Amino acid sequence: MLAAARVATNAGVSKNLKNIGLVSGATLVSRVLGLVRDVQTAAVFGLTGISSAFFTAYQLPNLFRRLLGEGSLTAAFVPTLNIELEQRQRAGAFVLVNQVASWLLVVCGALVATAMIFFSQPAWLEAAARLFVSDESAIRLWLLSGNMTVVLFPYLLFVCLAAVFSGALQSLGRFLEPALSPIWLNIAMIGLLWLGAKLWPGSGHDAKMCQVYALCAGVLLGGIGQMAVPCWALLREGWRPRFSLELSEPVRAIFRLMAPTVLGSAVYLINMTVARYIGLSLNEGAVALLNFAQRLMELPVGVFAVAVSTVVFPLISRFAAQNDEAGMTGAYRKGIRLILLINIPAAAGLGVLAVPLVRLLFQRGEFVAGDTLAMAPVLAIYAAGLPFFSFVNLVLRAFYARRDTVTPVWAALLSFVVNIVLSLALMGPLSTAGLAIAGNAAIVAQAVFLQARLTRKAPGMAFHHIGRDLAKILVASALMAGAVWLGWAAWSGGMPHTKWHDVAGLSLLIAAGIAIYAALAWLLRVDGREELRAMLLRKLGRVADAKAK
């Protein structure tokens, strides 16, 4: 029986590797465009108060989107929708989609209106600012950020509805349109910022303000695109929109599951918002610097870890709906192994090559050499936390698939306490690096807490089952990082750091690093390498077929 379950699990995960590859490819395009967007933003604004105010304002609706729309809602909605698909087929599932979308429209509409009223009152925002800072320049940044928040907050409504449509598509086995969703946001932001720079050229304050509000318009336009594309794909699957506030039993079940998760989301939202405003109070460029470093660190997370989580979550949710503990355990182990297999060497590479990467990607326009030297160590710190970010992304979904939304709340509370305490303790002596260290420590504490609780609930998901593979991955990553570090030292010794010098050196060393790591992983017989090999062969096969045609 157990052997048969293992065969079924392996078949299910192998089948879903195609979807992982599909989502990875789409997410890679999205993350690259996001990086282009941030490089463009850095070139236009640099590490200034205007860019920090924008990123602080954008953080609020974006966090609500990630936590209310894609976090707590998805965690409760996808497993419940899978049950509806099992019991009532598509007709029942589409009824649930309409009910959830209708309630979300009402709730998010009220939330957007409330936020816009609050942030449009300068006296209220200034009073809040003076509770934390007394410096007049910092207070002006708070007020500027509040003005931008009023413009940006409607974005929340569009992307929360997009999360419902994307969750429904994923449950129906369609992963491409949800994975493409962020692309429309990035294209809109890149296009509107470029247009703003053309219409209002110059480096004066008025020109920069026009440019940054053009960027805000890009966020709103991109949000509409994020909502429209999965909506169109869902219509093609047979869904028809209906406004319904009926409190059916599945809707009540979603609300019950969401209640503790919304609390956890609120804790996380407060955590990240306070961290951003702490940065805004530290110096003008702190928030922008942290944002650029975090975005660069998130590139490998988005390319693979999120793709694995997106595909594995419906799979383990389906196993959970069928009470198939063996299937769920097998899917979880394979997902974690694949995440670590990619993200540990990615973290090592980012840390070793932080300076040339930042210099090549960001150092242009208003982003100068001094900014590169300030950002590189922060990027290296964030890189050290990359495997933990990736790990938490999947372990949270294991709890959600088991319909446990209480444990993630306690994990969020722990993360909040660790982050705030360490941020306040380290921001003085270590500046922005201290804030990055605090963020890493918080995610490490969250990862350890979640895995310990998961092991207690499901011993088959214990981390020691992949401990041997983890040791092999660490050895291979360390040897690869050492070789890349020596290679860069030899390449850059005594030579001027021109753009083409950095391009050639990074291209050569990244390719060599991948080859070295792949060879070591194969020689050490790390589990999971067969799945990656199969996925690459399928991609190469499709390319060959396309050329033959």
Q: What class do helices, strands and sheet pairing give? A: mainly alpha
Termini gap: 44 Å
Residue ranges: pLDDT <50 for 5 or more in a row?
1-15
Arithmetic mean of pLDDT: 82
Q: What is the overall shape? A: globular
Main sheet record = none
> SSE string, helix = H, strand = E?
HHHHHHHHHHHHHHHHH
Description:
This protein is mostly helical and 549 residues long. The protein has a domain at 48-256. It is built from 17 helices and no strands. Residues 1-15 have low confidence and may be disordered.
SSE diagram, text form:
Blueprint: H1 2-45, H2 49-119, H3 122-129, H4 136-152, H5 155-171, H6 176-199, H7 205-236, H8 249-282, H9 286-321, H10 325-352, H11 354-362, H12 369-384, H13 386-401, H14 407-457, H15 467-492, H16 499-523, H17 529-548
Helix pairs in contact: 1-6, 1-9, 1-10, 1-17, 2-4, 2-5, 2-7, 2-8, 2-9, 3-4, 4-8, 5-7, 6-7, 8-14, 9-10, 9-12, 9-13, 9-14, 10-12, 10-13, 10-15, 11-12, 11-16, 12-14, 13-14, 15-16
Label this structure with key terms.
disordered N terminus, 549 residues, globular, mainly alpha, single chain
